[in-house]
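Narrative of accomplishments. A recurring question from our advisory board has been how the design workflow behaves on a single, concrete structure rather than in aggregate. To address it, we present the structure tokens for one chain from the evaluation set, followed by the sequence designed for it. No filtering or post-editing was applied between the two.
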């Protein structure tokens, strides 16, 4: 298999190099408060059939990957949810069981290997929480030095986790966008690799592995995929994986891919309607998809158009209800951003054929953000002084 970069804006091709992150031509027009311009995508050329090895479709040799078991996550066939919704081919891909408990490990894993291949021992990034703790964990396994910039509001668990892995952790006085700028500046001064999502082409490329796994687990591509969206990199990764399989002739057509946003942090949704990204301050209970300016915005919009994808929104209440339903009816405890994808599926059930193969991506573990998860559970645990009181309650 041969690999090169192609600019997602001007289609110019480049050799893959560790110091080339964005298209030198298109990035000249970059402004501060807009999505990343000149995002480079990995292009592959070669042949494969349905029995491909996931590593063979990645641009870094297997020997550089750290010894931490990323990916290969289970595909659930949730019986109660199938009954409840009437969708007998509903599946949930649980990426909360990755080593650092989120989908982000797929990107960190490839970035770490890419850095190793080029003898780079230091990686910096901005994160709302999960990317940071993920890079910290994967970097610990690889013996790389990791420096993280987090917004003021990052949940405690994600912060503590990153520190436990031994990373340098900085909280910035401001939001994710400020952390993003700080991390780029830091990398410029200090050297090493920057793992900022979308900006480093290996982030989207690593995330494509989820689609490759879905194909392997289902022995076909799903008809529909639901993915929660903040910066739009997981979304792009999902598209990329299936697009690679189409290119290689392994599958005939792309699934319909739904991008699910929080109603109160819906930059991509708004841009799809208006064609432009506005820098509006947003908030949602799903902190991992709380993004004012989606870094992969331009590229994500292009992909949605090209492959007839959909962008939908769900309310915070719907997200919290979906989180509780997944936990209580399937036994799957996912963080609000993970549950958003399921809430999106629930809102679309009237529009999808009941026998369709539907894959919902749950992207992070529920224990990542206990304060959000506790919102609906307030007052549900009673203090008792005797067993009689407990029996009376039930
Ligand atoms: C990062 C993240 C997302 C969103 O991914 P984007 O690439 O930012 O769209 C969704 N869920 C979880 C748990 C995440 O950590």
């Amino acid at each position: 298999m041969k690999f090169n970069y192609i600019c997602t804006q001007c289609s110019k091709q480049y050799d893959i190099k560790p110091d080339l992150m964005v298209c030198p031509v298109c990035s000249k027009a970059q402004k501060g408060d807009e999505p990343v311009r000149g995002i480079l995508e990995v292009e592959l050329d070669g042949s494969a059939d349905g029995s491909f090895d996931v590593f063979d479709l990645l641009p870094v040799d297997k020997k550089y990957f750290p010894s931490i078991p990323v990916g290969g996550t289970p595909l659930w066939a949730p019986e109660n949810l199938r009954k409840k919704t009437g969708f007998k081919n509903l599946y949930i891909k649980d990426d909360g069981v990755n080593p650092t408990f989120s989908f982000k490990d797929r990107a960190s894993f490839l970035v770490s290997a890419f850095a190793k291949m080029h003898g780079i021992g230091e990686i910096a990034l901005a994160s709302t929480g999960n990317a940071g703790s993920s890079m910290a964990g994967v970097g610990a396994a690889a013996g790389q030095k990791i420096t993280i910039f987090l917004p003021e509001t990052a949940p405690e668990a994600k912060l503590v986790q990153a520190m436990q892995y031994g990373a340098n952790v900085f909280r910035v006085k401001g939001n994710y966008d400020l952390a993003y700028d700080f991390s780029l500046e830091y990398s410029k001064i200090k050297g090493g690799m920057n793992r900022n999502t979308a900006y480093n082409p290996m982030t989207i490329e690593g995330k494509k592995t989820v689609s490759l796994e879905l194909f392997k687990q289902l022995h076909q591509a799903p008809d529909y995929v639901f993915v929660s969206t903040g910066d739009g990199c997981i979304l792009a990764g999902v598209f990329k994986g299936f697009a690679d399989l189409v290119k290689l002739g392994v599958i005939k057509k792309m699934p319909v891919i739904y991008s699910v946003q929080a109603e109160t942090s819906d930059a991509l949704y708004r841009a799809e309607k208006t064609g432009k990204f506005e820098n509006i301050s947003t908030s949602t209970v799903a902190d991992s998809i709380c993004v004012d300016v989606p870094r992969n915005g331009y590229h994500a919009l292009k992909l949605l158009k090209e492959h007839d994808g959909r962008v939908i929104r769900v309310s915070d209440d719907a997200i919290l209800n979906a989180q509780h339903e997944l936990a209580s009816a399937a036994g799957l405890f996912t963080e609000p951003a993970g549950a958003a994808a399921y809430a999106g599926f629930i809102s679309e059930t009237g529009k999808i054929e009941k026998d369709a193969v539907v894959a919902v991506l749950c992207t992070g573990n529920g224990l990542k953000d206990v304060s959000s998860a506790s919102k609906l559970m307030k007052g549900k645990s009673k203090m008792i002084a005797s067993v009689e009181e407990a029996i009376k309650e039930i």
